[in-house]
Amino acid sequence: MKRRFSDCSSCGKLMLLVGVLVAMPLLVLFFYPDDRIYAWSFAVPSLGSVLLGTIICLIGRRDADSGFEWQSSMQRSSLTVLFAWIWGILVGAIPFIISGQLTVLQALFESVSGWTTTGLSVMDVAVTPHIFLFHRSFMQFCGGLGFVMMMVMLVLGKQSMNLYNAEGHPDKLMPNLKKTAQTIFVMYNSFLVVGIAAYRFAGMKLFDSVLHTMCALSTGGFSTRLNSIGEYNSLAIEIITIILMLIGTTNFAVLLLFTKRKWRQVARVSEVGFMFLLLAIFVPLTAVSLSAGLGMNIGESFRRASFDVVSALSTTGYSTMSYMSWPPFAIGVLILMMLIGGGIGSTAGGIKMSRVYIMLRLALLNIRKRLSPSRKIETPYYVKAQGKTPIDDSLASDTTGFVVCYLGLFIVGALLTTITAGCSLTEGMFEFASALGTVGLSIGLTGPTTGAGTLIIEMFGMMLGRLEIFIILIGIYSGISIIRQHIKTGTSREEI
Length: 496
What we know:
Strand order of the largest sheet: 1-2
Helix content: 55-70%
Number of helices: 20
Strand content: under 5%
């Protein structure tokens, strides 16, 4: 049965939220007054978004009983979420354009990379004003939570739960949705304070500490240094960054157990065990490859491998060195880690470790059935923060469908990248895996001189990766449905 809804109010609230977030970099002017010349670059889009959001909220209240017919709440929610992200990207890009920092396409790319917590960049951070460095990092910090998460924390609407699920948040940490959002917000900001303090203790400047912590927790990867974390050449800073990246890539529900000191429950979670298993296997293999291929001593190779494998698997994108000279095996490991990605329900991108774990469990079960003479039926399961969860036919089907779509997009995107960038297949696979997984590591293809074709392909990859493919497809389908209903309604009125 079809239902009627009006989404003006939700869209208006999200536009108000975007306007407020884009205004936050203006706080930097208290510490760096030389950047006051860029104040209007942020004030104009911020005020414009707030004004339009207010008008749409008022329209939504007045026309609450009108609207389009939807087959399901998922269609409606997906379109609203897609609108929020597109609006956020457009408004987030305007400061770069007004100030002349970037071209229109580059500004859109930087904004997409920021909100999706990817970290690929076309800016020269060595000459970028502080206010824009903060803007980039703050977009990543907020993008890690998501627009709907922040809106739910501030104001709870009738459709909040549907929007919350549509944006890719699978878990409710508390019985009440608003309390769930607030709990995540408190944890997220508590880790932010701890991370800033740790970086300061390790000798990093306060401004750099704030920005690097925001980006590490959001698994973003934007840095204030041209050579990322490697420019500091500090083991202490690298260890702190590894810890923050692991926190950022861990499911919020697991982090809640961790903060409550429920160590045994954390240790039982399948995704946590699988993450450390992957690191235990691929860090040593990468270290041996670097030692043999680049002539590093074993200690240095383990240091480099540990940081960069964690960075790839967590989909953060910080690096300690250039990958242009890395051996093919080590590059292959990073591509694999970027494809697998972080924890589901975290700030990370990629296929997600839970889905890969489920696929492997199903594959092993299938092999065992073929080898076993008995006809015993097994029901596989995996352990979430909430407890054991059976891997039933529905979950297996959903997981398989997502993984197949993801890998199909990866192959197409990698091939297109080789055409637009004129690079090798390995380079195309690396760069697009980074974009689709919202990682931010680059093999050297993405930068200030990157061509329009490559930037556009990577932008599509980043959006599809952050919103997990189906939300975008359903949102586009829903948008087309609105247009069709509009045309149908107009035609009917003309006939009357």
